[in-house]
Design brief:
With 114 residues, the chain is of the alpha+beta class. It is globular and about 40 Å long. The longest helix is centred in the middle third of the chain and has 16 residues.
């Protein structure tokens, strides 16, 4: 497999893993602004032909790195990212429960977005 590039398509709300010009995995997310700023991952998807190669973990790691560079936090709703964060507490600080509630409320208020 060719080298994997991870890119942030903020406008589309996707952190994408790209190899050979093809998107082979992604985390779909949104930016929560209130009650505080947070990146909120909702889904992690890896194309079946690329599963089991660490792509989802690389995406999760980069999402937390993006948040750190931006001085914000991650409030994960995606089950994969939640589990990844539990296994990597040194890289993935726990989200404030209030932010998690606000993120869940945002998803409910925007049906069809995810």
């Amino acid at each position: 497999m060719s080298e994997i590039e991870i890119r942030d398509d903020r406008a589309a709300g996707r952190l994408e893993a790209v190899a050979g010009g093809e998107v082979i995995g992604r985390i779909e997310y949104f930016v929560l602004e209130e009650p505080g700023r947070a990146l909120v991952p909702v889904h992690t998807i890896v194309e079946p032909a690329h599963e089991g190669k660490g792509i989802a973990g690389s995406l999760a790691r980069e999402l937390y790195a993006v948040a750190e560079r931006e001085g914000t936090v991650v409030a994960p709703l995606c089950p994969y990212v939640v589990k990844w964060a539990e296994r990597h507490p040194d890289e993935a600080p726990a989200a404030d429960p209030g932010l998690l509630r606000a993120a869940k409320d945002w998803v409910v208020a925007h049906p069809g977005r995810f």
